[in-house]
Amino acid sequence: MKPLFVINPNSSVIVTAGIDAAMEPLRRMGVPIQCMTLEQGPPAIENQMEADLTIAPMLALAQGLAEEAGGFVVACFGDPGVRALRCAVSQPVVGIQEAAVATALTLGQRFGVISILPASIPRHMRSFGAMGVMDRLAGDRALGLGVADLAHEGRTLEAMVACGQRLRDDDGADVLIMGCAGMAIYRHKLEEALGLPVVEPCQAGAALAIGQMMMGYGRTLDAD
Questions:
Q1: Tens digits of per-residue pLDDT, 161-179?
Q2: Domains along the chain?
Q3: Spatial CA neighbour of 180 closest among 46, 43, 23, 25
């Protein structure tokens, strides 16, 4: 089986390490999973401009891996470049935001999103609108922490629990999505604190991609 490449479009090796750790349960399925850092990416992706700037180098990286790849996951919430990459390669390409929402819809009726900064929320909303899931969205609330801040475990977990409580108690969410790949290590602690299912988007993306790979799904180039 060819490997699944999970591409972190920012240049943070710390974020990539967290994504790689989150892949461990999925490695039991027998598909090799390789997590990669986009060296040309920004240190963090916290707004639309930074997201858009990752697309060209991410496409170049993925196209260089296409002959050996079984599939790709773009590991940034907001799914930058996913549709462009689907035009460039024939393997399954999954964005973690779409995958996280699809997973959340099977775990609850109304999903809430824990985002990093307020500037992230508008691009999330554009994607939710395009997906046609606004009527299932309970809310999208920001921590007020940047990607680099997420490495400070005590402060981050406290902020995530508080944000999750507001999404649960005030907004009516019965399932939560962590709205940044840099949050990967906090899933189980957040579930324990809040008593709700929590979707880690990189895990959701990899699970969906592996399923498509095993089922032999591909695409015709330029299909989008």
A1: 999 999 999 999 999 999 9
A2: 4-95+203-214 (3.40.50.12500), 98-201 (3.40.50.12500)
A3: 46
